[in-house]
Design goal:
The protein starts with a helix and ends with a helix. The protein has helices at residues 3-35, 38-46, 48-69, 73-107, 117-138, 141-171, 176-208, 218-232. It is mostly helical and 234 residues long.
Length: 234
């Protein structure tokens, strides 16, 4: 195994670790919400720095690989995809923290009603994150498209949750504050699903060199990576 291959393997391992940390954060934040476990929510918040630090480390690794190894073709796509994935995962981690923060607030307030839509959204979103990372590791394009399809399910549950809470607020304005926090939580989960979709789309690009969105230009990212790396050396 060459030097570049070994470094790419290590990079993949770091992405896997970051993905596991984020999945754990999402799962625990939703559990803390449903079970009203303040300590569990605080645990999610306390681990955010670990996720942030690993994301920075991955991006630094990617910049150095591009600048020092000058990878071509598929290797370059792999590295730039890893950069994008780490950023999406870090944002998911932030949303898990947001859910944990709302969980702490709601645990100290009167119980509104049993959670129905949010657990369903969380289950789908978590599976999307897990499968998107799995698709990255296995370079599985079919799994990517499956992840992308599931995003519509989360969107529909978001609408259902929103409409149900609007109805409750109309009937009883006193619960507006509680209902709005639940709306925020549902939106956080919807954004997590969006980021999982982003990862799936980037993996398709990595494997096939085909962009199904127009938001990713390898040459431009290559240039920015090099400029950023050189500026850090001054």
């Amino acid at each position: 195994m060459g030097i570049l291959d070994n470094e790419l393997r290590k990079l993949k391992e770091k992405i896997l670790i970051l993905g596991c940390l984020v999945e754990e954060g999402i799962r625990k934040s939703v559990k803390a919400l449903i079970d009203r476990e303040i300590d569990l929510a605080k645990q999610v918040i306390s681990r955010d720095n670990l996720i942030n630090g690993l994301e920075v480390e991955i991006n630094e690794d990617c910049i150095k690989l591009i600048a020092l190894r000058q990878p071509m073709a598929k290797d370059l796509r792999f590295i730039t995809t890893a950069m994008k994935i780490s950023t999406d995962l870090e944002r998911m981690g932030d949303f898990a923290v947001n859910i944990a923060e709302r969980a702490i607030e709601l645990a100290q307030e009167p119980f509104l009603k049993p959670f129905v839509n949010i657990p369903k959204m969380a289950e789908i979103a978590e599976s999307m994150v897990e499968d998107a990372i799995d698709a990255f590791v296995k370079e599985d394009v079919d799994l990517c498209y499956d992840v992308i399809k599931r995003d519509d399910q989360v969107d529909e549950l978001l609408k259902t949750n929103h409409n149900e809470l609007i109805g409750l607020m109309i009937k009883n304005p006193d619960i507006i504050s509680l209902a709005l926090k639940r709306m925020f939580i549902a939106k956080y989960l919807e954004r997590i699903a969006d980021h999982a979709t982003n990862i799936a789309e980037m993996v398709i690009y990595m494997v096939e060199g085909k962009m199904i969105r127009g938001s990713f230009v390898t040459e431009e990212i290559h240039k920015l990576c090099l400029e950023d790396f050189m500026s850090r050396q001054k």
